[in-house]
Amino acid sequence: MAEASRHDAWQAGDSYEAYMGRWSRQVAPQFLNWLAAPANLDWLEVGCGTGALSAAIVAQCRPRSLIAIDPSEGFIAKAKAKAKAKAKAKAKANVSDKCAEFRVGDAQSLALEDASQDMVVSALVLNFIPDKQKALAEMKRVARPGAIVGFYVWDYPGGGIEFMRAFWNAATALDPKALDLTEGRRFPFCTGDQLTAMAEEAGMASVECRMIEVATVFADFEDYWRPFTLGTRPAPGYCTSLDPGAQQRLKVRLQDTLPRQADGSIHLKARAWAIKALVP
Ligand SMILES: C[S@@+](CC[C@H](N)C(=O)[O-])C[C@H]1O[C@@H](n2cnc3c(N)ncnc32)[C@H](O)[C@@H]1O
């Protein structure tokens, strides 16, 4: 595994939820509002993780079907368990619910027929896929003519995920070598213009791009810091690779530099770039 990507471990669903899933869950409804899909469509979600976007699709879009794939067995298990619990609660309340079908799979070779889906979407995934153009070509292949392909990724080059930027600012001040691990360096193509160009290069039409911003509010410093100590994903992976002394120095630096409200809470923002395109 390349040096910069060695902390991209995707297995522990609970750790991911605490670190990133909770914020992706906030972007998802805004993204789906923007896609404005009618009910009763066949949906595919690529790289569903613990099911942040899948849950929003089921809740908001009344799909006819939803297949959600991810290569991580741990994340798929977590997404399945969450969807099952939700469907059970709804059944108790006598409300019918369509459960997503979660499968282990890879965006670069989707085990689906050509032209079989009406909506093909993905959240916070594209930058982690080794062959991004292959993944976009696959998303287009399985979409019916006239289908929508949509995805979002964080605005890494613009430093738009403020909680992550604060972490790396502190980490690189103490350990300049960590600069190569920062998402801004690793994913420079996560800009509106470049994502638009990538979708066009994949043969998609009427490509539109917009920014989605959400508030990331941490109840206190521990709420901010703890997810970094759980290890799932690049920055937490780096944090847990540090020896206890280095990790403590990083924690203290963040404690000293993060802006706090009077009640101790930390109010930051996170920006994502979203793309929507038509399959000709
Ligand atoms: C930041 S998480 C996003 C998860 C979820 N979509 C969300 O919004 O919370 C990135 C996801 O990309 C998945 N991923 C990495 N490589 C992939 C690939 N080749 N094909 C599909 N998904 C992939 C990871 O397993 C992980 O679940």
Give structural notes.
The chain is of the alpha/beta class and 280 residues long. It has one domain: Vaccinia Virus protein VP39 (Rossmann fold), CATH 3.40.50. Helices cover 42% and strands 22% of the residues. The protein contains ten helices and seven strands. It has a seven-stranded mixed beta sheet with strand order 3-2-1-4-5-7-6, sandwiched between helices. Helix 1 packs parallel to helix 2 and helix 5 packs across helix 10. The protein is globular. S-adenosylmethionine binds next to helix 1 and helix 2.
Topology:
Layout: H1 13-35, E1 42-46, H2 52-61, E2 65-70, H3 73-92, E3 101-104, E4 117-123, H4 132-142, E5 143-154, H5 162-174, H6 183-186, H7 192-201, E6 205-218, H8 221-225, H9 234-241, H10 244-257, E7 266-278
Helix pairs in contact: 1-2, 5-10
The site of S-adenosylmethionine (SAM) has 22 residues, from α1 and α2.
Number of helices: 10
Rg, Cα atoms, Å: 19 Å
Number of domains: 1
Shape: globular
Q: Could you give the order of strands across the largest sheet?
A: 3-2-1-4-5-7-6
Order of helices and strands: HEHEHEEHEHHHEHHHE
Largest sheet: 7 strands, mixed
β-strand number = 7
